[in-house]
Amino acid sequence: MSERNQSRKFVDNSAAVAKETLEKGKTAAEHSAGAVEQSYSVTAENIPAFSVKMIDVARANAEAGFDFARQLAAAKTPADIMELWTTHTRKQFEMLSDQTKELTALGQKMAGEGAELIARSVNQAFKKAS
User: How sure is the predictor about 16, in pLDDT bands with cuts at 50, 70 and 90?
Assistant: First the structure.
């Protein structure tokens, strides 16, 4: 085989490999973009639940504030006020701690579901590409 034919064959093979690699990369990118889209959809579906939880938190905090104001208005002595204040502060701290845990868990669930979709899709795309 002539040197020219060998060079031509090498160039043709290199072009074929490059084209195949490009196609696999394109397929992987398309799968990744699809996964991001799905992740966004899952997150968007969970946003109403997060919003409802935030409304519940706001309502519970407002009710606790009004209850505290009613109790203060009925207090007879400074000692009663101090006891109410201490009790209310402790309860509010506990409630805030619980609310934070609930909101964090919900946010982590939302993020985890979205990330899981992306990771699964990217892994599938790379398996197909290899």
Answer: confident
